[in-house]
Amino acid sequence: MLMTASTQNGPVANSRVVRPLTRRRHDVDPHRAESRVSAYVYGTVLVLAAVVGISPGAVDSGAGVLVVVGTVLSTFVAHVLAHSVGALVTGGEHRELRAAVRDATPILSSGVLPAVVLAATGLGWPSEAWGQSLAAAVGLVRVAGIGVVYRRLQADVPFGRAVAVGAVAAAVALLVVVLKLTLTH
């Protein structure tokens, strides 16, 4: 039997809602895809931990936005440095530094929506508890979507498995947040 895209991936992966999320990008090298997914998870987990660790007063005053932005920017710079230090020491090409910056971009995107939610909360809507919860939920949903993101970038993984990997990643992210809050606050 000839396997077409519709028979391989099943009806769920070919629905009009899911198709844009699961369409593969063939222009991303496997190493670059792994680096981007790593940055996506790392940035999102750190933002999630920051959001959950913000005091109610900081959420209400809007200072929580600065915590998220500071987390995102410091993580981005550290990630780019860590991934480009070899090129910097050996006098590597600027192309390697540009690739490290591009691959770290998901760290920057990890804080955008939580920061917007916290900014709205600082302005009075929603309440601080709802705003902080919503900002945290954004992080969990983002981590839960990692399997689909990776599948889109490179991997030839069935859609169901991609969703299962995301669910496990979200559970592990929650564990990381609990450990961070328990051990560092």
Descriptive terms for the model:
single chain, 185 residues, mainly alpha, 10 helices, globular, disordered N terminus
Kindly describe this structure.
With 185 residues, the protein is mostly helical. Helices cover 81% and strands 0% of the residues. It has a domain at 28-143. Helix 3 (30-53) packs antiparallel against helix 5, helix 3 (30-53) packs antiparallel against helix 9 and helix 5 (63-90) packs antiparallel against helix 6. Mean pLDDT is 84; it is low at 1-9.
Q: How would you sum up the global shape? A: globular
Calculate the terminal CA-CA distance, rounded to whole Å.
Answer: 58 Å
Total DSSP E strands: 0
The biggest sheet amounts to:
none
Radius of gyration: 18 Å
Strand content: under 5%
H-E string: HHHHHHHHHH
Quaternary structure classification: single chain
Q: Total helix count? A: 10
What share of residues is helical?
Answer: over 70%
Low-confidence runs: 1-9
Write a brief structural summary:
This protein is mostly helical and 185 residues long. Helix content is 81%, strand content 0%. The model is unreliable at 1-9 (pLDDT under 50).
